[in-house]
Amino acid sequence: MLATLTTLKTRLGIALSETGADPLLTGFLEQVSARMELYCNRRFARVEHGWEEFPGEQSELRLERYPLETIHSLELKLSEATGWQAVPLPDCIVRGGCLISLGVAAGPRGSVVRLEHTGGHVLPGQLVEPGQVALPVELELACVEQAAYLHQNRERVGLTSFAGLRSDYERYFGVSAGGETPAQAQDVRMFWQFNHQDLLPGVLAILNRHRRLAG
Question: Please, what is the Cα angle at 105 between 101 and 107, to 5 degrees?
Answer without folding.
Answer: 140
